[in-house]
């Protein structure tokens, strides 16, 4: 089982007290879904993982994004490098897959709207109306030399109507991928870090961590905020979580040349204007090694960091690390909260071991019951306003060709405009 765990560029989501792991680059091809039961105490050095019966993905994929539906019943798997499980050829015949958690079933949804562009190195977020937002990303159109363009467009998937739309927006930010994305309760998406090209012909560089991109999901407008506070190294291949009190915690990643970054962990306070970076004083004590290509999820008081690649050794990791967001220190033991209500959970459980009883803090409720009928009309009005803002894309990204080997991933800055050679992750 340990060889199955070791991976990078995977996805992780929490459903009904289960931390699900799927996709990623492994030492051997893997399409399984497995989980860690968060309803029971555990030690991070002695974990019990459980395979989900009949949960295997229909393709091998990595560097994709997985977004959980509002009712916690469906995983939307979007983009990434996709391979046919039988021929190992690249296979982009379907760019979105859905996993129904109650029935443990994968399917390809029938979508309306614009053509879906192939993308890798993206992060998706979902708002409280069930609309998934995906910004920019990379598309390897030459899978032999791993050359392709970066983007700065905004694509959205309305999960209620199964409609994909590429928004036609003005004042878009620089082309970018491998960023962190978190949506605040006020509907603002915060984009941090990654790789960008500031203008045509310029080299590709890491984004200044003080240059925060903001996207308003109500007005569909871009803006930028210049954060203050402690100095944070630029990075990519890192993770982030949003806490209930409005702090974005980032962890790990690497420099452009794949060395470690400082600090390993940092906190962006989005309740201050401008946003402010800080480095918790205890966060360097017993800190994990520098890793990249991992994932992070928030479960009550714990930031759970999963797998990745050890930057110092270059080896795959099967480790899980725990950061207590209340005490701001690293811990090795996990204790589930007691008497916490379960919210937004599926009505049925799939046939897997040890069903949980508590609900993770995965989604913030934007509208309380006490607001009543008036809030419902308000949300409906916003929904209609958003629908009127959707436009056709100006261009369609060509579908990449299939090859039978992984991209070589040399870090050679390409001379062509909007052409990108990502490095070996």
TrEMBL record:
<keyword id="KW-0677">Repeat</keyword>
<feature type="transmembrane region" description="Helical">
    <location>
        <begin position="361"/>
        <end position="385"/>
    </location>
</feature>
<keyword id="KW-1133">Transmembrane helix</keyword>
<dbReference type="Pfam" id="PF24681">
    <property type="entry name" value="Kelch_KLHDC2_KLHL20_DRC7"/>
</dbReference>
<keyword id="KW-0812">Transmembrane</keyword>
<feature type="region of interest" description="Disordered">
    <location>
        <begin position="399"/>
        <end position="425"/>
    </location>
</feature>
<dbReference type="InterPro" id="IPR011043">
    <property type="entry name" value="Gal_Oxase/kelch_b-propeller"/>
</dbReference>
<keyword id="KW-0472">Membrane</keyword>
<dbReference type="InterPro" id="IPR037293">
    <property type="entry name" value="Gal_Oxidase_central_sf"/>
</dbReference>
<dbReference type="InterPro" id="IPR015915">
    <property type="entry name" value="Kelch-typ_b-propeller"/>
</dbReference>
<keyword id="KW-0880">Kelch repeat</keyword>
<protein>
    <recommendedName>
        <fullName>Galactose oxidase</fullName>
    </recommendedName>
</protein>
């Amino acid at each position: 089982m340990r060889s199955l765990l070791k991976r990078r560029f995977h996805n992780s989501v929490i459903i009904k007290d289960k931390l699900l792991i799927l996709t990623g680059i492994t030492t051997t091809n893997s399409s399984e879904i497995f989980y860690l039961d968060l309803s029971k105490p555990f030690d991070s050095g002695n974990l019990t993982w459980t395979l989900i019966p009949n949960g295997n993905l229909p393709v091998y994929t990595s560097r994709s994004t997985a977004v959980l539906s509002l009712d916690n019943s469906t995983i939307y798997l979007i983009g990434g490098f996709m391979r046919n499980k039988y021929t190992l050829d690249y296979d982009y015949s379907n760019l979105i897959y859905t996993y129904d958690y109650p029935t443990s079933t994968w399917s390809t949804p029938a979508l309306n709207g614009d053509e879906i562009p192939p993308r890798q190195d993206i992060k998706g977020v979902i708002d409280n109306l069930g609309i998934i937002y995906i910004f920019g990303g990379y598309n390897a159109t030459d899978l032999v030399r791993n050359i392709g363009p970066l983007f700065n467009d905004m694509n959205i998937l309305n999960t209620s109507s199964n409609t994909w739309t590429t928004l036609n927006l003005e004042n878009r930010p620089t082309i970018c991928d491998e960023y962190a994305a978190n949506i605040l309760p006020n509907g603002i998406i915060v984009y941090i870090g990654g790789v960008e090209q500031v203008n045509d012909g310029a080299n590709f560089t890491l984004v200044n961590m003080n240059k925060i991109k903001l996207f308003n999901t109500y007005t569909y407008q871009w803006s930028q905020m210049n954060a203050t506070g402690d100095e944070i190294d630029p990075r990519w291949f890192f993770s982030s979580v949003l806490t209930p009190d409005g702090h974005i915690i980032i962890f790990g990643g690497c420099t452009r040349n794949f060395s470690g970054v400082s600090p390993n962990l940092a906190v962006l306070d989005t309740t201050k204007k401008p946003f402010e970076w800080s480095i918790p004083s205890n966060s360097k004590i017993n800190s994990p090694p520098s890793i990249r290509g991992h994932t992070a999820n928030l479960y009550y008081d714990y930031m759970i960091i999963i797998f990745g690649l050890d930057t110092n050794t270059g080896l795959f990791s099967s480790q899980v690390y725990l950061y207590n967001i209340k005490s701001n220190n690293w811990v090795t033991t996990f204790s589930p909260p007691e008497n916490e209500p379960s919210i937004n959970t599926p009505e049925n459980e799939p046939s897997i071991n040890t069903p949980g009883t508590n609900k993770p803090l995965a989604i913030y409720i934007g509208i309380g019951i006490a607001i009543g009928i008036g809030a419902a009309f308000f949300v409906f009005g916003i929904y209609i306003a958003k629908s009127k803002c959707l436009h056709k894309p100006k261009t369609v990204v060509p579908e990449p060709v299939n090859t039978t080997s992984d991209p070589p991933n040399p870090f050679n800055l390409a001379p062509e405009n909007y052409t990108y050679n990502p490095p070996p992750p």
